[in-house]
Amino acid sequence: MDFIKNYISVLAFILVAVYTLSLFAKWHWFFALLSNFVIQYFAGAIILLPLLILLNQDALLSAIVIAVAMGSYAQIRAPMSNPLAFAAPISSNAGNKIKIAQYNKYYKNHSYKKIGQWVKNNNIDLIMMQEVHGKYLKMLDDELLKILPYTMPKDIERPNYVTIYSKYPIENLIIKSICGDICKTKGLRFTISPFDNEKINIYSVHTEAPIGTQKYKENFAELDGMARWIASDNLPNTVFMGDWNSTPYSPAFKNMLKISKLNYQNYNIFPETTWPSFATLPFLKIPIDHILFSNDIILSSINKDKAIESDHHSLIATFTLE
Fold it and tell me: What is the pLDDT of residue 3?
């Protein structure tokens, strides 16, 4: 019994120590990396707390673990435009809805027929995909262009192997560098017109994973550059989506939200965690695929969906324009 008590105490001390280090995310890339695992800190605290109480462990340690649980859940909700919203707002304009999907296919995933069937079954109007290498693009085209007939021109650069399939023509496509001398990453912007006299302006980027000093700087600069582009354009009906390799709790994401003034929102008790898809339990995953939106669009729903043999879950958002 003493061994079990000591073991639980050690786990609790480790949880408190790692969570505390994550609060210093602004000061070092490693602490910033730790800040991405807020969901795991909450889950760990919820699991350890009853064990500490049942084993009559130190009251102070139990109180600190309670503080970790409360603080980490507050952090989970804090980046959302409405942290207390657990249900979508009711829209008076039920007809003007559009369903948009974000999906990192994973470059070794060749389940093209399954992807096509999934797009068809979910009535998706537009999908943004990453890791679609050129030599496999035709196989994906064969499945998706039958459903979503518009895609990027074949003679232009596709930054980080991104591609788009849309029910509506892709207009005013711009691809440009977004982070100066810090990295070579390019983002994109385009417009679709799903409704009469209503355009939606969509931005996207696939960022570096922020592991190590240089990659952390690049990830921060990529999201910062996209945010400044969005803020400078100040277009109505804006959507910003992609695989950003950062959770809403990281300094890079928080900075992007502040500059872009876009909205991040989930309606479930926990966010839509998309990676890694092979983790069996939801609290072992983190949200690194995102769809953000401007104030003039209503987010009617947002849910993760099938991974379709990728290491990322897909993410589907339904928007209403009024």
Answer: 72
Q: Specify the CATH number of the domain 97-321.
A: 3.60.10.10
Q: Is 221 within 8 Å of 246 (Cβ atoms)?
A: no
Beta bridge partners of 165: 127, 151
Q: Where are the domains of the chain?
A: 2-77, 97-321
C-alpha dist (Å) from residue 274 to 80, 281, 315: 17, 12, 7
pLDDT, tens only, 167-216: 999 999 999 999 988 999 999 999 999 988 889 999 999 999 999 999 99
- Contact in structure between 140 and 115 (CB atoms under 8 Å): yes
Give residue for tokens 């479930």.
Answer: 268
Of 173, 163, 177, the closest CA to residue 130 belongs to 163
Q: How many CB atoms lie within 10 A of CB 322?
A: 10
pTM higher than the cut 0.70: yes
